[in-house]
């Protein structure tokens, strides 16, 4: 069902643009929202700077079928946006009703990074596609969110992701361990409970609830590539890492996402 927007309601925010990448982010966000007993808030962004650019007199479009060059106006861009927003709303409604979770949908115009940063402040978790399917690099919005968002957690979903069963929670920094453990504990009712991957020498005292989760040791000084190689054997569907983890560095994030692993970064 659609519910009124309530800043106090625990919610999962997902940025939508009706692309295949954002629809993958939507599906994973809905899975997490259902497990966390949170509502799902869809946000369709209309990039303000793009609208201004469309009004420039020299802007043209190349039609896909004919190859003809034609004028492109702000009115045409707005019609295109409305069609995409309607498609995104339908996708959100279908996914939310399938998971039986409350949902809302909002269209916001502005600068994308600023809009996401503002909306993320009242969300338990913010879900974004990592970038275009044709590249292994982070998109500009995902990179800005990685650096600026104040959301408790940030979910980055690769354009093509693997289909494992469980989240793997990486405990590799003492300061970030409590947030990682809190998220792992919140997801303990998943069909496959999270697996704790504990680095040597971190010195973490596991809370009682976390002692019931499966756990294995993380090799000392392991490279991200070696970790990614281990994940299929662990049945991983993605990684939970703290924002201060070495795995949260942009270059490492790109490497893991490029290998098809969603990342849930927690603070």
**Biggest sheet record:** 10 strands, mixed
CATH class of the largest domain reads Alpha Beta
**CA-atom Rg in angstroms:** 20 Å
User: What's the architecture of the largest domain, going by CATH?
Assistant: 3-Layer(aba) Sandwich
Number of helices: 8
Strand content: 15-25%
Instruction: Give the overall shape, derived from the CA principal axes.
Output: elongated
What distance separates the N and C termini?
A: 30 Å
Structural class: alpha/beta
The total number of structural domains is 2
Order of strands across the main sheet:
5-2-1-6-7-12-11-8-9-10
Strand count = 12
- Spans where pLDDT lies below 50 across 5 or more residues: 1-8
Query: Mean pLDDT, rounded to whole units?
Result: 82
Question: In short, what is this structure?
Answer:
The chain is α/β, with parallel strands linked by helices. The chain has helices at 20-36, 48-54, 74-99, 112-120, 140-148, 177-186, 224-230, 250-258, and strands spanning 11-16, 39-47, 60-62, 69-71, 103-110, 125-129, 153-157, 166-171, 195-198, 215-217, 236-242, 263-266.
